[in-house]
Amino acid sequence: MHQQTYRIYITSLLLTCSLATDAKTLLIDDFSTPDLSLWQTKEFKGKTQYQLISLDGNSVLQAHSVAAASGLYKELRFDLSKTPYLNWRWRIENKLGTLNEMEKSGDDYAARIYVVVSTGFFFWQTKALNYAWSSQNNPQASWPNAFAPNNAFMIPIRTKRDQVATWYVEKRNVYDELGQWLGNNKFSITGLAIMTDTDNSKGQATAYYDDIYFSSE
Question: What sign for the dihedral angle of Cα 65, 72, 131, 11?
Fold first, then answer.
């Protein structure tokens, strides 16, 4: 689909969104506003630079990391079972070296987006399902995160085989995949995060994110 045609289509679609629990589409961000005030910065080591830029005639989120790991986080509260599909588009400008992502030394990703849920009352009952751009050619289908194996789970959506400087549009049934990982559907969504990180491999990466929303189908 032509870039401008795609933009017109997605904009018209997102205009129908609502915060009501029965909404067919729930917009998280299309990065058309002039700032990132609705997002919180979460720093782990160093600071990835996030800024809004114009790319191909559209306003998008740029992430640039140099041996750093920080993310943007937005708090959310809605019925995930009614809008279970997470949709977004992203691209990377360079590939990381081939890393062992199941080890702490290789736990870096040029791009990733993850959904955070609560499975109980206490803060340590928070879980995160990560959709990642893997640096492997043929990564495993999924694996526990190297730093938080009991609380975070990695699913590679794109790999080293995919192209740089190319937009990819994604759709995942987060509700089902969370249920499969946790073994039940007793969870509630609490937030969504974006992160481009290179702190463990001491590398650098630039990525772009856009048009993040949940949908009923």
Answer: negative
- Residues 110 and 121: their CA atoms lie apart, in Å, by 33
Strands 126-133 and 58-66: unpaired
Q: How far is residue 45's CA from residue 211's CA, in Å, rounded to a whole number?
A: 27
Q: Where are the alpha helices (DSSP H) in the chain?
A: 3-14, 174-182
Q: Considering Cα of 159, then 162, then 166, then 169, what sign does the dihedral take? A: negative
Residue 1 burial (10 A CB sphere; 0-12, 13-18, 19+):
exposed
Strand partners, 133: 158
- Beta carbons of 204 and 67 less than 8 angstroms apart: yes
Task: Find, among 216, 214, 217, 210, the residue nearest to 33 by Cα.
Answer: 210
The vertex-157 CA angle with 153 and 160, nearest 5°, equals 115
Class of domain 28-215: mainly beta
Block residue for tokens 């589409």: 25
pLDDT tens digit string along 55-103?
989 999 999 999 999 999 999 999 999 999 999 999 999 999 999 999 9
Q: How far is CA 132 from CA 79, 90, 115, 153, 158, in A?
A: 24, 11, 12, 10, 7
Q: Can you tell me the distance from the alpha carbon of 105 to that of 191, in angstroms, rounded to the nearest whole number?
A: 27
pLDDT in tens, 165-197: 999 999 999 999 999 999 999 999 999 999 999
